[in-house]
Each structure stands twice: as C-alpha cells, then as structure tokens.
Amino acid sequence: MRLLPFMAGAIFVLSMLAPRTVLAQGVAISDPRAGARLDSIARLLAGLPPTYAEHAKLARARAWKEHSRAIQASWSKVRDGQRAALIAWRNAEIPWGCPVGQTVLYPFGGPDFLNVHSLFPDCANLVMFGLERLGAVPDIEAMTGQEFAQLLTNVRSFMINLFARNYFVTDTMLKNLRKERLRGVVPVFMVSMALSGVEVLRVVPLDPPVPFANPGQADGSPTGPGRKRELKGVSIEFRGAGSAQVQRLNYFSLDATDAAIANYPQFLDYLRALAPTTTLIKSASYLLHGNEFARMREVILDTSEFLVQDDTGLPYARLLKRGWQPHLYGIYAVPIPPFEYAYQPALAAAYDKQKPKPLPFRFGYQQLEKQGDRSNLMVARLPSGQARPRVGRVR
Length: 395
Known about the structure:
The chain has twelve helices and nine strands. It is α/β, with parallel strands linked by helices. The chain has one domain.
C-alpha cells in the first residue's frame, strides 16, 4: 500500500510522439550487439541463462546460480498461479488487442510492468509516471564478483517482495531503489520484461524529456517562463517472442500532485494528446479521491476511453457522471486501513445490484488475512460518441 501522501507511478508513448533519443552509455541505437547485451543483462538479473557470450562467466558464478534458483522458484508460483489466472480472465473478459487506441496509460503503477503487460500485451505504447528515480542499466561487466552478488541480492529482494504482494509498498520501494547496486526503475523494468518473455532492445533517455510542441518552436522543445523544471524520462523498447512489432515503454519521474505538476506546465497537455487511451489504475492509494490530484484526475478522465481499475482509482460516482457504465467483478468492502475514508456507498450499492462474478486472482491491496481475499475490479468503456474536451495534438 502506498503510504506517502504524494506519489505516482507508472508508461508508453504513441510511436508518433517518440522523441529524439540517445542510447545509454553512448552506444548507437542501431547497434544490434548493444541490444543483445541489454537483453542478456535483463535475463541474468531475472535468473535466466544469458544470451551474450561475454556473460557466460557471470552465469557460472555461485552467487548467480543461487539467485537463479531463488528468483525462478518464486516467479514460477506467480506465473503458474496468479498470472495464469489473470491472463485467462483477460482472454474471457477484455477485448483482444489493445482495446482502445495504441497506448495504455498506467498512472501510479510504479515499475509494475508485469500486470500492465499481462492485461494489455498488444498495446504498442505504455505510458507510466511516478516518484521513483529512473536509474540506469547496470554495468555488470565492470563489477567485481562481490558487487555483482550484491546487485543480485538487491534485485531478488525487490522482486520476491513484489511477487508476494502483487503491488509495491511505496515507501519501502523508494528505499529499496536507493540501494547501492539497485538504483531506480530501469533494472526492475528489465527484469520484469525478461520474466514476461519479451526481448529488451533499447534503453534510452528521453531527450528532450517530453516532446512538447510549442508554437514557434520548430524542434518541439519546451522553452520560456512556463518551463520551470526539467522533466526526466526513460524509454525502453522491447518486443514479444516471435513478434516483429517493437513496443515502447516510457517512464517519467515526477510528483503528480497539483502543486508539483505546476513545475511541468505542459505535461498534462502532453497526456491529453495521447487520447484516446486504454487506462489501468491499480493499488493507487486512493490518490484520485482527494483534492491533491484533482488536475491529474481530470486529465485521466479526459484522456481515457477504456478503463480497468480497482476501487483505488477514479471514484465510481465520477465515472457515472461522465457517462461510463462500469462492469464489476469480485467483492467490494470497506477499504483496508488507513484508507477507510475512501469507502464508496455508490459503488457498494452497484455491487449489491450487479451481483458480480468472482475474481479468480488477487488484484490491488490484499485484505487482512482473517477476512480473506476481497479483491475488486471494474471494466468500463466510454460510450461511443461521448463528448470529450477538444485538445491539441502533439506533432
């Protein structure tokens, strides 16, 4: 559960919006050897055999073998249990392909690639943003044996904690991502991608961080008094096994509260320009229920046309007011502490009326063990022809 009062996480940008990029560590983005190295690093950290010749020695180390046994044993339980059930449910309940548009927007998700990719594997672009620092691709070839072993320990601790909960505890995550060897979300995304069976192709900083299109700016870069602080982002390109389609995940590091978003005055316009999006909101600390994230709440409502969320996302009453007709799953009850204030009587009444199907997997915050699993989820699509605000497109 995300216990910080301000927090955001979660990212994929439209292909047409791809900014000018430079590959991390100065390697040309067209270099296939660089891509092979990146994917092999992701596999090593995920406890999978490397595919890059220079990494064979690392895989023979005792520390890596122990890491591989531990992380793969933990992952196999998730893969064959929780994830398999989620995918089976997705195939039965969600439209094939990318339900709306080409972009899935996942606010407040942290580096949670596993859930968003399991639900929407065919969306070309993922857009995520949060407080978590970006980090970089670990330079494992330059590490001593002890340093490499410490990196594996950090990765294993972080991922196994995620497997157990299926969500990030924000304050714990921020501490873990400041470990000596595990710094930022990039390694976490890479491990998650390797476990999901996709190939990591490129990791690049966004330069400029957001491809704003300002009048009079030929290069589309933001200038002038409105740009108060540089917005940092990273883009990870990947493709599924046996697929020729290159997909892109873009992650931005920022505080999305109304007060803080004033430092990035054009970021909300940028998000609106992604419309229409498929949107996922999960384990979001009920941030969109209060006043601190009012601007972000309106942007998500303006941008989204297909929505999968738990009760921590957009308030049910606001969805009804906008014309959404959510279809409910699972069980709804008073939220776990300290979020009891976010109980929604209108949603409780809708559950009583709809008599929803049970949810065959855990989703969102786990309830107290003595109360059992009370996961809830809703799926909704904005009715065709529903009016939405007119916004300019980023070119």
